[in-house]
Design a protein that fits this description.
nine-stranded antiparallel sheet; about 10% strand
Length: about 850
Amino acid sequence: MDIAALRSKYKATRQTLIDSFNDGGRLQPFIRGLTKNADTALREMWSENVWPNGCALVAVGGYGRNELFPSSDIDILILVSANPEQLAQVQVQVTQLVSYCWDVGLEIGHAVRNLDECIEEAANDVTVQTSLLEARWLAGSRAAFNHLNERLQEARDPQQFFQAKRLEMSQRHAKFEDTPYSLEPNLKESPGGLRDLQTVLWVMRAAGLGRSWSDLTKLGWLTAREAKVLHSLDYFMKVSRARLHVLAKRREDRVVFDLQAPLARKFGFKVESDRRASELYMQRYYRTAKQITQANTLLMQTIEESLFPATASTNNLAQTALVVLNAEPLDAEFNVRRGLLDINDNELFEKDPSAILRAFIRMCQNPSLQDMTVRTLRAMWRARSRIDASFRASPSNRALFMEFMQQPRGITHELRRMNQWSILGRYLPAFRRIVGRMQHDLFHVYTVDQHILMVVRNLRRFAIDEHAHEYPLCSELMGHFDKPWLLYLAALFHDIAKGRGGDHSKLGRVDANRFAKQHGLSTEEARVLVFLVEHHLTMSSVAQKQDLSDPDVIQNFANTVGSLYCLNALYLLTVADIRGTSPKVWNNWKGKLLEELFRKTSRILAGDELSSEGQVDIHQREARATLALYGISETSYQPFWDQAEITYFSRNDPQDIAWQTRVLYTHVNTKKAIVRCRLSPHGEGFQVVVYSPDQVELFARICGYFDSQNFSVLDARVYTTKHQYALDSFVITSTRFADSYRDILQMVEHDLAKLIDLAPPLGQPVRGRASRRSRYFPVTPRVDLRPDERSQRFLLSVFASDRTGLLFSIAKVLAKHQVNLHMARISTLGERVEDSFLIDGPNLANQRQQLAFEEDLLGAISA
């Protein structure tokens, strides 16, 4: 045999098939062609040897079912007889066959077993049993192959196989956090992936129920239309997998960022409005995965009821799945069966679609109900199209939906169930548009619909006593909030207008207002709902980007909110919203800023006057009380306070003033830099205060040190005392030292003070690599410079993809243009930064110099 010629022929045929597929060829001829190409090569190599009687070459796994994807393994079983005299000969031939395969370019996975070993392995390992379930003869003894199939069928226990595959599926789902909505989903293994469809077919086949979706129509478990839908879902996932392999030129089953755009183009998606083609493809993917999850749930439950009937009342598997067994009546429409909600009549939802909403209300009202029976879910799934315009316009159905939203428990689970079974999107058409919609904004890690439901979940947790320790203030406020359902509605609508173009807050306001009128909300209830939807971003924006020590900022925000009731509601929604965006976005520092804004605004709305002078008095009084606890007399630290400007006392927390005074009051006129650190009292990171004779480029030099240590700056406050000393404070975090901040405090104090005293020339920022996600979905760098509330200083906002060295780069530009920094708010949203700075300087008064400053800054933040 000419190995080189065989390799050339195999690779040429393979490449021809790939080229044809790339040119728009269909999937089945492609993967069948790849399978046939491998078959031909393997048979030719097998025939090079004279194999002992009883030996057979068998294709198993995906290759066995004639579905060979471009970079999938070619799994084969070499079936041998149990004759010991033949084993030595077979071992030599197997080694030669495997060597041939690798020389030709076939990436095989092989096993060599005799008949008894196959049966034993299948009994002990469900993966082997599954692989052999799809065995296909390639060469050698047909009799041995047929005998293997007979023995396997005799040994197979459908009930045991079902339980093993269900457990395997559960473990697999857990690896992917039980969600198909990951940013880079694995289309083979993730929930809603190909494995979920294959698992159903495997347990069907093991139970003797059939081999295809069409076979289920014969059992009455699927209509012809539903079988056709399943075929299309299966086809989409398989085409996606085949294209992923071709694009990646390797085995790649994850829809990774760098392949999402080319994959979308292959499917014909194009840019629409402000949406990337990749976002459109991913929305199609998520909706497909959702439908596969629905089908998997229905069919696995149906097969389970067939395999494990509670009574032998019938021998017909299809009928057994539909028999009402051990039912306890709940009301005229529903029963409880095995802890599941069951319908009395298979046609209930077709005859009375309103019963769909009543079913979810019953789930909320009966905590003992674990789920719905398969026939309830199937009947609901089939009747979902009955939720149409006339259904939504019915006053009784609107009243039912409001009754559901006002249930005291179960809202989170049932909203998720409503979304999972396509009921929520049918009732709220605007919600349907955002199902499966991904946002490549570098901080949202959930699809819009999943984010919304996560926000509802967070709000519900505030109302549950067991979670009161997580966010005590939120739990306290929620405990006194008389209409929590208003918050849940606000959560449903706050992002419902994403993707329509324009400001989604204002567009969502229109949807919320329409809903309020249609569902009979009072004028005040409607006003609160609309306010929350329109302003759901306002509180976080003010807290993270504006100077909360400025009374005008607080007053303007209080004017926007208007009442304590709206403030409480907005605070609860804001915390729930940020926490529902991404696990990486929320931190204790953001929590502190939001709480500070909440408490200051509360005082104004309660009638208290808030002025700079009054704030200074309050801060100084509280700081003195703290210092007195340490036994420090007022006369000893008064010289330090005498050098501080009034802005220092108004802009700093009293506890921070007390700490900084305690560690610095003995160094009022020091000639060397003093650096002191402590663990953050807010539970995350550590605080650094720098006190030093002022020097040129000091802020940039400090940022350069933090940059060199890969520290992240969350907050910076920069002051100059009356006698020209710098008094700068920072809040720092570090992923490297997250569990050992205490161990590095002395190092930071020593090294940073030494650097400031030496005052070396500024180095270059560390140019860290951008993450894969930010490389493929970059934030367009943007600089916004405008006067502050009093037109005395400027508010500088910077938007960019996060990267190492970014703040140092900005600080160098500030130093170059002699811009004075008074406050910095560093807001990192996942892999995107939205930093805010309060600055002034003579160069900013000149339009040409201001433009040069902005251009340099834009260049510095561009990756």
